[in-house]
Write a structure and sequence with these properties.
Transcription Regulator spoIIAA, alpha/beta, 5-stranded mixed β-sheet, single chain
Length: about 130
């Protein structure tokens, strides 16, 4: 399945969603439709690849949480990979790293440790500006 903003690669009951743009209000509706169709086809695992994405807004976060909840109801799993450092820090500040299974892009020692409040605020501002 191919879309303008996201490429969905399906293998058995798993999907890899390769984000070609940011996960925002302008890109979510078409992706949401495709994911709903996939979940009807017994998909149990979805991996979002953020390698080409640079920002996410509240609509994108809402989509990820809805996908996680839908998959959990089917004993499935959601995973986010190649998440850029600024976005990783945003997920961390929102305490979503574990529940969304977020894996940072490359080596990220600066976002893996205990961040101070000012570091988290800076990361949040960078994620919003991206």
């Amino acid at each position: 399945m191919t879309m303008q903003h996201t490429q969905l690669l399906q293998e058995s009951n798993s999907i890899r969603a390769i984000l070609r743009e940011d996960l925002t209000a302008s890109t979510v509706p078409s992706l949401q439709s495709q994911l709903k169709d996939a979940l009807k086809q017994d998909v149990r695992d979805i991996t979002f690849d953020f390698q080409q994405a640079r920002s996410i807004d509240s609509t994108g976060i809402g989509l990820l949480l809805a996908a996680k909840n839908s998959l959990a109801a089917q004993q499935g799993h959601l995973r986010l990979i190649n998440v850029p450092n600024g976005m990783f820090s945003l997920f961390k500040s929102m305490r979503l790293i574990d529940s969304l299974n977020v894996e940072a892009q490359g080596n990220t020692p600066d976002v893996q440790g205990n961040d101070t409040e000012s570091e988290l605020e800076q990361a949040f501002e960078q994620a919003q500006a991206a």
